[in-house]
Amino acid sequence: MSSALHEEINQLKEEKNAIILAHNYQPKEIQDIADFLGDSLELCIKASEIDDKDLVVFCGVDFMAETAYILNPDKKIVIPDLNAECPMAHMLPEEELLKAKEEHPDAGVILYVNSIAEAKQHADTLCTSANAVKVTESLPHDKILFGPDNNLGSHVQKKIDKEIIPTPKGGHCYVHKLFHIEDVELKRKEYPNAIIICHPECNMNVQEACDEVLSTGGMLKFIAESDAEEFVIGTEIDMITRINSEIPGKKLYPLLEGAICETMKLHTLEKVRDALKTESPEVVVPDEVASKSLKAVQHMLDASK
Questions:
Q1: By the 8 A CB rule, do 35 and 19 touch?
Q2: Most buried in the list 27, 70, 246, 301, measured by CB within 10 Å?
Q3: Edge-to-edge order in the sheet of strand 18-23
C-alpha cells in the first residue's frame, strides 16, 4: 500500500468526519484502511450506531450501502464504485415478490439482507446468514416466503418447523455455487486434521459434507474459540485474509482458490480516496421505500438481540 495514499485517505477521513465500513470479502488493502470490518449483520448493526459521523464510505456491494442509507437517511452514504452490485440481490425484483405475496397471502415474508431496497419494503423482516433461523422463528406465520437465496432458505428449513417457500426459485450466490461436494472430499483427503467450514449459501450437499455451516462472522468466532489448528474455509477467498489478520497462528486453506466475488473487488484505495474527496457516488433510497424498508430492518435488529 502506498503510504502517501494511506495518509491522504486518513487526512480526508478526518476532514470529512467520515467512517469507512468494509465487508469481510474486501481485498486486504481495503480491509487495512477500514474503521470497521464485518459480515452483513455486523455492518447493519454498526450502520445503525453511526451518530457522530457525517459521511459513510461503504466498501461492499449495493444492497449494503442501501441498508446503511435506510438506517441513516440524514447522513451521506457513498460507495467507491457504483458498479459493485450483488447479482443475487437483483434476482428478486419488486414485481416478482409482489406476485409471490399474491399467491401466498397467508405467508410471512423474510428477505435476506442481500436484496434490493424496492423488495425490502415489502418484507415483514430481513435476515442475514448469521441470524436467519432466529429471525424466522420470530415471525408468527407457519408459511414463509424466503428469498432471494434458496440455499440459505434450505438451511433454515432444516432447523425449523415452518414451510419455507423459496422466492424466487433458483436464487443463489454465484460464488458459493462454485463449491461442489468433490471439493470437500478432496480437501478432506488433503488436510485430514482440518475442520471444514462452509457458508449457508453453499449447495445443501456441500453443507451436509462440511463439519460446520456458519456465517462469516460465525466462522471468525468459531475459529477464535476452537482448539483446532487447521481449517478449510468454504466462502469468498478474502474471508481468510481477515481471519489471518485477527487470529494469527491458525492454518487456513481455501475450499476453492477461485471463490472470488468480482464485484466486491471493484473498490480500490484510489476509489476510496476519490469517494472521500468528492463525496460521491452517493447512494440514496427514495423516502417512501426507505421508510417502509426501515420497519423490516428494525425488526431484524430487534430479533437479533
A1: yes
A2: 70
A3: 36-38, 18-23, 55-59, 76-78
Q: How far is CA 284 from the centre of its chain?
A: 19
How do the pLDDT tens digits run along the chain, 305 residues long? Answer: 578 999 999 999 999 999 999 999 999 999 999 999 998 878 878 988 988 999 999 999 999 999 999 998 989 999 999 999 999 999 999 999 999 999 999 999 999 999 999 999 999 999 999 999 999 999 999 999 999 999 999 999 999 999 999 999 999 999 999 999 999 999 999 999 999 999 999 999 999 999 999 999 999 999 999 999 999 999 999 999 999 999 999 999 999 999 999 999 999 999 999 999 999 999 999 999 999 999 999 999 888 77
Could you tell me which residues come within 8 angstroms of residue 95 by beta carbon, excluding any fewer than 6 positions away?
none
- Residue of 16, 8, 1, 2 whose CA lies nearest to 279: 16
C-alpha distances (whole Å) from 177 to each of 88, 97, 173, 181, 235 are: 11, 23, 6, 11, 10
Annotate 124-163 with DSSP letters as a single string. SEEE-TTTHHHHHHHS--SEEEEES-HHHHHHHHTTSSSE
Under DSSP, the state recorded for 194 is P
Residue with cell 469507512: 20
Unique residue bearing C-alpha cell 463439519: 211
